[in-house]
Amino acid sequence: MKNNFIKKIDEALINNLIEGDCDVHDEILNELGYDLSSIESISLKNYRKNSFILKGLINKQKDLILLEKASTLFRDAIEKNIDKPISYLKNLIANNQFQVQYRNLDNLGIDEIKEIIKDQNLLEILEQLENDQK
Amino acid sequence: MELEYKKVATFEEKSQAIQEVFTPEFNTHLYKYAIIRLKRFFNIKYDLEKGFRGFMIEDFIAETIESFLRPDGRNWYTETYPDFKKQFISGLDSVIFNTLKVELEKTKDTFEILDSDPDNSFDDSDYNVLLSACLDELKALNATDDELLLFEPYIINGMKREDLSKLLGISIEELTNIKKRLDRKLPKIGEKLKMLNYEK
Q1: Per-residue confidence at A134, pLDDT binned at 50, 70, 90?
Q2: How many whole angstroms separate alpha carbon B134 and alpha carbon B142?
Q3: Residues of B in contact with A10 (CB under 8 A)
Q4: Which chain B residues touch A51 with a CB distance below 8 Å?
Q5: Residue-by-residue DSSP string for A17-44
Q6: Is the ipTM of this complex over 0.85?
Q7: What is the pLDDT of residue B111?
Q8: CA distance linking residue B146 with residue A115, whole number of Å
Q9: In chain B, what are the domain boundaries?
Q10: Of A73, A111, B4, B162, whose CB count within 10 A is highest?
């Protein structure tokens, strides 16, 4: 019960932040002895770093999604015996030095396909695969 | 038993929302919020240069961002938190709490603000005792009659400004000014409530 009251009070303060009103927080920080301009300068400096991390994380995750999608399409193409994607995959295997030799495509798992195609232009591959499967 | 369905945002929706809300201003707000949270819930006076035992607020914020974007990471419940900023602050609370709970024994006295305990219902007898305590503290802080009048419906019951404006016959601008004055007193009321011993 007491915690519910405290939660309501905290939510009211959080709502101020969400609306872009920092006055109450600034007053509290002043009372705690903080220099607001120092906080703003440090947070601005760190914003650039975190903004960079944010872009990197989004790009990395997007790549992982593309890789997952392309590998699944290759796996489907192998199962359905569709020529073009199979030839493309064979070419990749032939032109690259892999630690494991993939002689039989039927035995390739999703993770192995990912390993083979991970450094390729995934967007281009996806476009090609989707066209091939039409 | 009927399962409750909660709408969860996709990765694309989350990444778009983060990019939209994560501005320099919001980052500064998060920074200020985190300093206050560390003080209020963990009694930690955060050092702007050294952080707390090597933990820096910028790292908490980075980890919160990552928690939303990694596979199987934190969800965004779009119906519970239509405004992603609120979901982000809730995520930041969790990151701070989870990081510090292994550092501090004191964390056993802390709690989550937003995510935990969905039951916000009040028991009548406790409610009245707590409300009186809040109003007494407000009076001690020289709150005006308007602020006293507004505390229960606005802060505790979360009524919308528009509804209150109609109900009390006060303009939204006037209401906003009263609330601003009231807001300044809220941290002290929170402190007072934390010191009340009738409930553990």
Answers
A1: low
A2: 13
A3: 113, 190
A4: 22
A5: HHTT--HHHHHHHHHTT--HHHHHHHHH
A6: no
A7: 44
A8: 67
A9: 7-118, 123-200
A10: A73
